[in-house]
Amino acid sequence: MLSGIQPTAGSFHLGNYLGAVRQWVALQESHDAFYMVVDLHAITVPQDPEALRANTRLAAAQLLAAGLDPDRCTLFVQSHVPEHAQLAWVMNCLTGFGEASRMTQFKDKSAKQGADRASVGLFTYPVLQVADILLYQANEVPVGEDQRQHIELTRDLAERFNGRFGATFTIPKPYILKETAKIYDLQDPTVKMSKSASTPKGLINLLDEPKATAKKVKSAVTDTDTVIRYDAENKPGVSNLLTIYSTLTGRPVAELERDYEGKMYGALKTDLAEVMVEFVTPFRERTQQYLDDPETLDSILAKGAEKARVVAAETLAQAYDRVGFLPAK
Ligand code: AQP
User: Fold this and answer.
1) CA 16 to centroid of ligand 1, rounded, Å
2) Ligand 1: distance of its center to the CA of 183 in Å?
3) What confidence tens digit (pLDDT) does each residue in 128-156 have?
4) Ligand 1 midpoint to CA 322 (Å)
5) 109 belongs to the catalytic site
6) Phi and psi at residue 245, in whole multiples of 5°?
7) Binding site annotation covers 132?
8) Closest approach atom of ligand 1 to CA 181
9) Mutate to test the pocket of ligand 1, among 129, 194, 239 (most ligand atoms within 8 A of CB)
10) What is the edge-to-edge ordering of all strands in the sheet holding 73-77?
11) Matching Pfam families, A to Z (predicted)?
């Protein structure tokens, strides 16, 4: 099992947590899990060096605060394991230009930045992701729905490599939970909650002041109807709130619908705001505790990188050999 998160925005948002990180915490119990802070991916768009360094530690601190346990999983920083960039080069050489051009995330992001501003790194980002996954021979990749196309590319390239050079890579599957595959913006519940696309009011950052978070939940856009019912197509705002509520409390949506029968949207929002505050308050505190002890944090990451490198180096050596590179003596 392998997954990663970018250290770009500082705080994780609720979509990152419910769509991905929450699953990572559960899956570390049952899988040999590798989780990383993907700083190589972060520099596909311009980064301030000091901010990147700080945000990389901050991302690791949040992953630990969310419940990752370095004794149960391998937690590391992508740039500490050079094999990622090395295998990415090989996979770049197997990827068609047209194939890479069809990646919708690249199309969206490069359209926003303008063709001349978008970097070649942004273009080959999905191929680096392919290398990330294949290095650990991952069977499953827990991600949100927005990453499905990149996992498909990973499967295609792994099959291509295996077909051309002999069985080398495990063919991975996406692990996407239907309920939380896409958490929506609170102000526009037809688009995914995202650090780059959401308005500040529609985006729940986990490290924001709990009061501000409560306010955002209370002013979430719903609809002109009054019934609290899950109907993603016709009632996207209410459905999004029910999904968030249900996932954070572990209470099934049907039970929430029963409880809120005859009640107003305001009641649902007030209660969910409370649930959110109860969730983010200890999360913020735990994150701060890890940040206050950077030596321990760095040593967790160093141990993680050491463990990751053992696996990554073995896979890379095999791939290099299959491709026909002369072994270094
Ligand atoms: N709204 C979401 N619902 C469910 N899952 C989501 N993920 C992101 N947004 C949602 C999942 O979070 C993981 C980490 O993604 P990332 O490293 O791409 O984080 P990000 O850059 O902070 O995500 P954004 O906000 O989506 O960034 P932009 O705006 O740059 O595209 C992934 O598993 C992702 O699926």
Assistant:
1) 5
2) 10
3) 999 999 999 999 999 989 899 999 999 99
4) 34
5) yes
6) -60, -50
7) yes
8) 4
9) 194
10) 2-5, 33-37, 73-77
11) tRNA-synt_1b
Pocket test for ligand 1, best of 119, 146, 178, 192 (most atoms within 8 A of CB): 146
The ligand 1 atom at the shortest distance from the C-alpha of residue 180 is 4
Distance between CA atoms of residues 105 and 87, nearest Å: 22
Q: Which residues of 183-204 are buried (b: 16+ CB within 10 A; e: fewer)?
A: bbbbbbbeebbbbeebeebbbb
Percent of the chain clearing pLDDT 70 (strictly above)? 100
Q: Is residue 329 predicted with pLDDT exceeding 90? A: no
Contact 235, 260 (CB under 8 A): no
Residue 21 has pLDDT above 90, yes or no: yes
Residue closest to 145 by CA, chosen among 95, 190, 181, 97: 181
Vertex 193: Cα angle to 140 and 214 (nearest 5): 120
Q: Is the confidence at residue 198, as pLDDT, over 80?
A: no
Q: Which atom of ligand 1 is nearest to the CA of 194?
A: 25
- The yes-or-no verdict on residue 283 having pLDDT over 90 is yes
| DSSP tally for the chain: helices H, then strands E | 14, 5
Tens of pLDDT, residues 285-300: 999 999 999 999 999 9
Say which DSSP state 201 is in.
G
